[in-house]
Amino acid sequence: MRKRVNLFICSKPLQYFNARNIPVNNDYPNILIIEDNFIGANKLTEQISTIDKVWDKIYLVKHLYEVVKLLRHYSFENVYHYLDCFLVPAIFFNMLPMKRLYVYEEGIGTYRKTIFDGIGWYKRIIRNLMGVGSFAGSHRRCKGVYVYCPNLYQTQFKRFNQYKKNALPFKVPFSEMVIQNSELSSHLFRDEHDFSEIKNKKIGIYISSWTLNEAVISELVTNQYDEIVIKLHPHIAKTAEIKGLKQQVRIVRSAILAEFLILSLAQQNTVDIFHENSSVVMYLTGHPGINKVINAGRSLPEFNEILNGVNSQC
Questions:
Q1: Ranges of each domain in the chain
Q2: N- or C-end of the chain: fewer Cβ atoms within 10 A?
Q3: What number of other Cβ atoms are within 10 A of residue 106's Cβ?
Q4: Alpha-carbon distance values, 294 to 39, 71, 246, 249, 277 (Å)
Q5: pLDDT digits 0-9 by tens, 85-144
Q6: Tens digits of per-residue pLDDT, 200-232?
Q7: Do the beta carbons of residue 169 and residue 146 sit within 8 Å?
Q8: What is the CB neighbour count within 10 angstroms for residue 152?
Q9: Is domain 184-313 in CATH 1.10.10, yes or no?
Q10: pTM > 0.85: yes or no
Q11: Does 2.40.70 match the CATH number of domain 3-171?
Q12: Backbone angles phi, psi at 151, to 5 degrees
């Protein structure tokens, strides 16, 4: 007889920590799926298996469809996924035997209304025929969406109510989740987590996008920071030599969550954050150690709208 379980699927470290913050039915074992598509995924999976006892079983998979193999052993009561409006996962969840599907916040994309505004007409027809929705939580089998700002989610998607689903809160707010998991993070990312020797410094932190922005790096170098930290995006596999860097620059290549890195440095230092329309800054404003947050990316009205909504409604 197959065991009934809760199934959690994540593709990057942020999603893993958000998945831990979902209030779940403890009548069922918790199975964690980590997709092997970010730097350090294999190492992180091993660390989680050793340290984090929340999970009854952990699997590292190359592709989402490998989840089907687990049906030999498990029956899925509740499935938690980070996004349901992209074509491949949406079709996959149309076919996957499960009782309930939930989506959980994975960053600013969860609140976006215009993700698919630019797609061609033929793609729209395919999506409609497949029953694929246009925003997070719009899949026809989705029962609810776990978000840190339910009011903002419902404001963004007024159509949400007609689906008779729920905008569901996490166990604790994002900032509290980071604090509660700081010790766990220090164990999972111990190779590049300890900045305790840096105190009373002026620090510039660059949270990179999928590619490095040399203009941001040049600004960091010329701003006379005591320390410069470049946190690479978890999907960056290789980086070319970065010109103009001095000895005090630290490049963080691990899968450590940028939020943990920033708050660790902000405890005893003054921090300026440079980013490019990053979800990282959504819930960090107001910390006394954070001096400035500079968005060096291309101006995106929707990003600003969502960020303003977070500040006013969360």
A1: 3-171, 184-313
A2: N
A3: 19
A4: 26, 47, 21, 19, 10
A5: 888 888 899 899 999 999 999 888 999 988 888 888 888 888 887 778 888 888 889 999
A6: 999 999 988 877 887 888 888 778 889 889 888
A7: yes
A8: 22
A9: no
A10: yes
A11: no
A12: -60, -40
- Residue of 105, 144, 136 lying closest to 283 (CA atoms): 105
Tokens 């998979």 correspond to: 61
Nearest to 233 by CA among 200, 195, 207: 207
Vertex 216 angle, CA 212 and 217, to 5°: 75
Choice between 161 and 178, residue whose per-residue pLDDT is larger: 178
SS3 198: coil
Judge whether 280 and 259 are in contact, CB under 8 Å: yes
Strand-strand pairing, 166-169 and 142-147: parallel
- Token code pair at residue 108: 């600013």
Give CA–CA dist 22/169, Å, rounded: 8
Are the C-beta atoms of 63 and 106 separated by less than 8 Å? Answer: no
Distance CA 99, CA 141 (A): 9
Q: Are 150 and 169 in contact (CB under 8 A)?
A: yes
**Residue 75 CA to its chain's centroid (Å):** 27
Structure tokens at 268: 């005893």
Asked if 15 contacts 82 with a C-beta cutoff of 8 angstroms, the reply is yes
Asked if 252 and 40 count as a contact pair (C-beta separation under 8 A), the reply is no
